[in-house]
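Box 3.1 — From sequence to structure: BnaC04g31900D protein
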Amino acid sequence: MELAKYAVDFTGNVPLALNVLGSSLAGLKKEEWEKRMPMLVNRMARQIDKTLKDSYDRLKEEDKAIFRHIACLFNHKACDYVKRLLEDSKLDVDVGLVTLAERCLIQISQDKIIRMHDLLQEMGRELVRQPCILEPGEREFLLDSKEICDVLVDGAGTNSVLGIFLNLSEMKDTLSISEEAFSGMKNLRFLRICGVLQDDKKIVFQLRGGKYRMWRQLRLLKCWGSSVRCMHLPEGKKHMWRQLRLLEWWGCPMRRMPSNLRNCGKELW
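Predicted structure (token representation):
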């Protein structure tokens, strides 16, 4: 039982990874398992990665996109949450989730929560990172706090960026963000800024003009933590916030909520 538990822990209970390990140990006695297991752990990491990557490569492009969204933003979220935020994205989320579950790339619990194991999540995030290692502003999703700060300060974000998740607890310096920082991210749909800065540092938003198209594409705007100071969200024209599906604003001051946000309250969560 201890060997079986060790195998499950090593593979993260991912069926594809368990299959790779099981095929290497098939036909061996318990004593041989005990001898070979430590060596196999080191040798098989690459083989397991390749098996998981092969399963991903066989997906349709739409399902690959859903996989990357989950790996970067939506792990441990409810199915309805993901479907709502990805509606109008030209992705068939219902079919995609079923496909990913059938391929053992995600698990969906009885209460409809999506769970992706750490091995798969790390692979998905690496798939996003690898093509643009030196140019993070060209990626679909930005998750590393230092890289996010560099992109925002330099205004290096591009149309490729769909989502940003900034964890303030990983930052060491005060950051002031102006609207120009987002000027190139015309397809930004998911913006999450959460956590508490170290040593009482602050993050300041100066989002006044509402002239950039990125605000029109936002589906998710989440901002919480006492480290965040926001002047106010841009008012803009009537269609400024038309795509917004979820607004979470907690623990940080907002001088005034845009009137066109107040008017669409029935459509927001």
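Summary of the box: The mean pLDDT is 80.
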